């Protein structure tokens, strides 16, 4: 029987064992250690320069595999350079934004690299964000060029014409325009400082509509050195399989960073498929992959088959691997190393399982604190003197990270949104700390264990969901007076599923099919609540937060006599909740479509 409990204390012997395991990778780690110790913002080093350096040294080495076909570093670099030349012809300069809308493919990766080679920012649009949410995101980017995947045309068509940038292409049109352009490296790449912004990654932050978090080249290089070079430790002969969308930092920063740290190969899946996962791994000769916790659960839910063990994977990197499935996953699939990490798109530090300590979110050498928090608001709690108080080691608390010249904060594109996340004068006058919004436990030697997400967001399907965004989607629905949205735990699932407590207008009845049709139309699928509870009047605003906490604590299992509905899927909509619904969700049988 496997041990399902999280690690409660990291011991010196755990670190010693991890150090022994590092010995074969010592040369790679020595090469990348300076990138953690000294990373000047004005250094002439960027993602583009790292990529083209590999292309110059090893042009014949495979860079990307997709559906079994390989493209070498040299071939990929030539494509990227032609794409960059076309963007430059469209007026893209350092600091401009190129909006990219696409499912995973080599083309999307090449476009991303082309943008950052010019010193432009690749704005990674989430193809699940349709209509008003997509319009908001595009306006936030202020892009001069948008290139979209034909497979995302439905999403593109849902955007209003007035938010379109001056130049818009689908892949075919962009390829045609770029074909005659020169394949030489752009001269500007060698001049760019590491402080240049590289990506805008959309995140819910804590409240409201999606925000664009900033990923600078400098911070990406820290990921490459710290997570890629020091923790993942790929060899140049390795292939990292990416089943997560490239608009996620797990894919674009962590996984691509690990690949470029070693000059290894990246294999891209168009999208994740639990039934075809190991077949695609084998087809693309992958030796590593990235994950989120839900992905691992879906793989375990599949019936056993020979490919569970006939692959060549030796390590996996990601976040959200729960303690209760850790051992089972390792034993069933024979993956020797789990490189769990903790981070967020907007956070200025990351924890990573450098020492391979099972069932932890990893280690961080940078300054952080775990402090007391207000359960009703999710904010850090101050004492009578106005200062924060750290919790005792092993106790759950709010994770905050120090902001300093050594560990700067990229934040969001909106300075006011960034400022809302900063805690000032926390322990002494003049200090600054970033509120992660997450509950963790410190377990010793710079390691933490993840506990939960706080505030007005919850995490589901690897995405941060803002409750206010979902509540806004209920506005205007016939018969709905008010909706309160929160995340609830579902046994056997990672994160929290959405649940809405809804008050109906007098005389109105709940139409589960119509409500679901509306929500599918205006929200990404991952943000649609799985449960709807029909309640009476919601308390006044002065106690609204407290009531929301009460509702969240009651979950879907303690609703008293309130009617409860569950989302069966796109076609069936919401139906009366039934006893096995949670098990269906855990086994990916619901919701469907």
UniProtKB/TrEMBL annotation:
SUPFAM superfamilies: Acetyl-CoA synthetase-like. Residues 51-362 form the AMP-dependent synthetase/ligase domain. The keyword Ligase applies. Pfam families: AMP-binding (PF00501), AMP-binding_C (PF13193). GO terms for molecular function: ATP binding; long-chain fatty acid transmembrane transporter activity; long-chain fatty acid-CoA ligase activity. Residues 469-545 form the AMP-binding enzyme C-terminal domain. The keyword Nucleotide-binding applies. GO terms for biological process: long-chain fatty acid import into cell. Keywords: ATP-binding, Ligase, Nucleotide-binding. One of its GO terms (cellular component) is plasma membrane. InterPro entries: AMP-bd_C, AMP-bd_C_sf, AMP-binding_CS, AMP-dep_synth/lig_dom, ANL_N_sf. Belongs to the ATP-dependent AMP-binding enzyme family. NCBIfam families: PRK08279.1 (NF006134). This is Putative fatty-acid-CoA ligase FadD. It comes from Gordonia crocea.
């Amino acid at each position: 029987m496997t041990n399902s409990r999280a690690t409660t204390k990291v011991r010196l012997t755990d670190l010693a064992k991890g150090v022994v395991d590092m010995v074969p990778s010592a040369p790679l780690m020595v090469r990348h250690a300076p990138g953690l110790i000294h990373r000047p913002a004005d250094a002439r080093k960027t993602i583009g320069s790292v990529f083209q350096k590999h292309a110059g040294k090893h042009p014949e080495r495979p860079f990307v595999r997709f559906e079994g076909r390989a493209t070498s570093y040299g071939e990929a670099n030539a494509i990227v350079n032609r794409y960059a030349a076309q963007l430059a012809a469209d007026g893209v300069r350092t600091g401009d934004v190129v909006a990219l809308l696409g499912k995973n493919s080599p083309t999307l990766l090449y476009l991303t690299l082309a943008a950052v080679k010019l010193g432009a920012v690749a704005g990674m649009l989430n193809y699940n964000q349709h209509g008003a949410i997509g319009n908001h995101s595009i306006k936030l980017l202020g892009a001069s060029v948008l290139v979209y995947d034909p497979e995302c045309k439905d999403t593109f068509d849902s955007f209003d014409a007035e938010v379109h940038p001056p130049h818009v292409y689908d892949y075919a049109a962009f390829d045609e325009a770029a074909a005659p352009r020169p394949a030489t490296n752009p001269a500007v790449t060698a001049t760019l400082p590491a402080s240049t912004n590289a990506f805008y990654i959309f995140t819910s932050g804590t409240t409201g509509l999606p925000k664009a978090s900033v990923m600078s080249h400098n911070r990406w290089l820290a990921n490459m050195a710290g997570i890629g070079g020091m923790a993942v430790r790929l060899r140049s002969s390795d292939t990292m399989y990416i089943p997560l969308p490239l608009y996620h930092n797990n894919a674009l920063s962590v996984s691509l960073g690990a690949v470029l740290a070693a000059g290894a190969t990246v294999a891209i899946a168009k999208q994740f498929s639990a039934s075809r996962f190991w077949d695609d791994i084998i087809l693309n000769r992958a030796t590593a992959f990235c994950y989120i916790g839900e992905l691992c659960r879906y793989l375990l839910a599949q019936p056993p088959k020979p490919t569970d063990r006939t692959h060549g994977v030796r390590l996996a990197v990601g976040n959200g691997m729960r303690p209760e499935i850790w051992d089972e996953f390792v034993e069933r699939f024979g993956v020797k190393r789990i490189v769990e990490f903790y981070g967020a798109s907007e956070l200025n530090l990351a924890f990573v399982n450098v020492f391979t300590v099972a069932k932890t979110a990893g280690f961080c050498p940078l300054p952080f604190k775990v402090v007391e928090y207000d359960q009703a608001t999710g904010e850090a709690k101050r004492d009578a003197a106005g200062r924060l108080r750290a919790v005792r080691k092993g106790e759950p608390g709010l994770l905050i990270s120090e902001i300093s010249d050594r560990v700067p904060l990229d934040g969001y594109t909106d300075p006011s949104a960034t400022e809302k996340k900063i805690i000032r004068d926390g322990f002494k006058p003049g200090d600054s700390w970033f509120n992660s919004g997450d509950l963790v436990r410190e377990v010793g030697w710079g390691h933490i264990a993840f506990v939960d997400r706080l505030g007005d967001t919850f995490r589901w399907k690897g995405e941060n969901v803002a409750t206010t965004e979902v509540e806004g989607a209920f506005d205007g629905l016939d018969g709905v007076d008010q909706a309160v949205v929160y995340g609830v735990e579902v046994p056997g699932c990672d994160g929290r599923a959405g649940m809405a407590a809804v008050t109906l207008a007098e005389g109105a009845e709940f139409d589960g099919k119509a409500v679901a049709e509306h929500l599918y139309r205006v929200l990404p699928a991952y943000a649609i609540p799985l449960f709807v509870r029909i309640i009476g009047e919601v308390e006044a605003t002065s106690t609204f937060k407290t009531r929301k906490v009460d509702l969240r604590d009651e979950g879907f299992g303690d609703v008293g006599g309130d009617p409860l509905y569950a989302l069966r899927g796109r076609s069936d909509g919401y139906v009366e909740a039934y006893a096995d619904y949670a098990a269906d969700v855990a086994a990916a049988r619901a919701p469907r479509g």
